[in-house]
Amino acid sequence: MKKIYHLANCTTCQRILKELNPSEDFILQDIKTEPITAKQLDEMKKLAGSYEALFSRIALKYRQWGLNEKKLTENDYRELILKEYTFLKRPVILLGDSIFIGNSPKNVAAAKEAIRKAEK
User: Fold this and answer.
1) Looking at the DSSP assignment, which residues form a beta bridge with residue 4?
2) For residue 33, which phi and psi values (nearest 5 degrees)?
3) pTM passes above 0.90
């Protein structure tokens, strides 16, 4: 599967998508207009190893909801991501059995390299 979960109005996601320049066979899913499903999230978790790895602690609502003061479980992370799209680290790039989560330069470079190799 070749899929990128992103936010269309996020300038960081826009910059990364431009840098990655994914081919037309990638499916782009704007998680604001097309929310992720429980099945999609569970598939991401299988590749990532945990829901916590997919969870963004820099989302504004993380502090607004007082989540920074709570001890969250894997089930909490799953429910929060499904309830509020901003809790998913972005972008999430699926390429075969590989997953790339978030916007760190190291992660983006690894995704770019994997996409380049896959398209050869």
Assistant:
1) 28, 93
2) -90, -25
3) yes
